[in-house]
Amino acid sequence: MDERILPRHIGIIMDGNGRWAKKRLMPRTAGHVQGAKAFRKCMRHCIDIGIECVTFYAFSTENWKRPKEEVNAIMKLFSDYLDEGLDTEKDDVVMRFIGDMEPLDDSLKKKIAKLTSDTAGNHGMVCNIAVNYGGRDDILHAVKQLIKDGADPDSITEDSIGEKLYTAGLPDVDLIIRPSGEQRISNFLIWQAAYAEYVFMDVLWPDFNEKHLDSAIEEFSRRNRRFGGV
Questions:
Q1: Contact 29, 67 (CB under 8 A)
Q2: Which is catalytic among the residues 17, 48, 63, 172?
Q3: Which of 59, 71, 85, 106 has the largest CB neighbor count within 10 A?
Q4: Nearest Cα to 132, choosing from 121, 119, 141?
């Protein structure tokens, strides 16, 4: 792909695991297992084509409302992924985890801290995994941090808020992809996506593959991004 038309930052809402399983008369947890495989394929392809940053929406602040069995299964998959880690020498990926980690159990928090630390010195693609993340919570968290730092109200700017968001230091998201046929943003990167292009796709996340990602990027490349200009 022509690097001139690649988005710098892609956000992906991994949606449709439960419906994928239901269509196959399988438990919802089976959908999450297949969804984890789609995540790995998609992440690998982002590395291969030279994406600068990708953010995967793994678990929202609202997802705690799901059945306890399903939540536990998601957290187990998440823990297993952290155990696997990455071939950091080969991939050179910087792993970041965005969201409020406090409600997670201690073992998960330790694994998150370790993988974050182990990859902090890498220089390749930044991969954000949004866990217990919500866009409104992100903004609220940033404002609270400014208040704690003693910021004068008149000194608060868009830039100062941006510096306190979970994605501080990263470019705003250029392209958000949502599979599953749903057409809403579900509280995902709502500050960072002010000028993002959205691509909605009628494919459930476990079936999402490299061709779907390429198709979304091709659609992005055809968009005329004016950022409020003409």
A1: no
A2: 63
A3: 59
A4: 141
Q: Which of 2, 15, 48, 83 is catalytic?
A: 15
- Asked if 211 and 48 count as a contact pair (C-beta separation under 8 A), the reply is no
Active-site residue, 63 included: yes
Instruction: Give residue for tokens 């659609």.
Output: 219
Bridge partner list, 208: none
Given the candidates 3.30.930.10, 3.10.129.10, 3.40.1180.10, 2.60.130.10, the CATH classification of the domain at 3-222 is 3.40.1180.10
pLDDT digits over 50-104, tens only?
Answer: 999 999 999 999 999 999 999 998 999 899 888 876 555 567 899 999 999 999 9
- pLDDT number for residue 86: 56
Closest among 191, 221, 173, 188 to 62, alpha carbons compared: 188
